[in-house]
Amino acid sequence: MDIINLNVGNTCHLGCETKLRVLATRGNSVQLGFEAPKDVHIYRSELIFSPDKRKVQTGKARAIPDIGAHFDASKRLDD
């Protein structure tokens, strides 16, 4: 896993076409902005793996596609 420290307003690039910007910090919460091609989908991981949380967060379970089945939960993210 790569670790970088960014301040509010700083950006980093993920590959050639995706940019991440730190928009704000509030206590333990960080607000991030992403600029990416339309075919790149960005989801919070806890929403991918928990349909119940998707429903609580959005009011309807179909707001975020159920893509958790496409992920191998046995693999570590830093592998």
UniProtKB/TrEMBL annotation:
Pfam families reported for this sequence: CsrA
Q: Which organism is it from?
A: Pseudomonas edaphica
SUPFAM superfamilies noted in UniProt: CsrA-like
Record-level Gene Ontology MF annotations: RNA binding
Q: Which InterPro entries match?
A: CsrA, CsrA_sf
Name used for this protein in its record? Carbon storage regulator
Annotated keywords: Activator
The lineage's top-level taxon is Bacteria
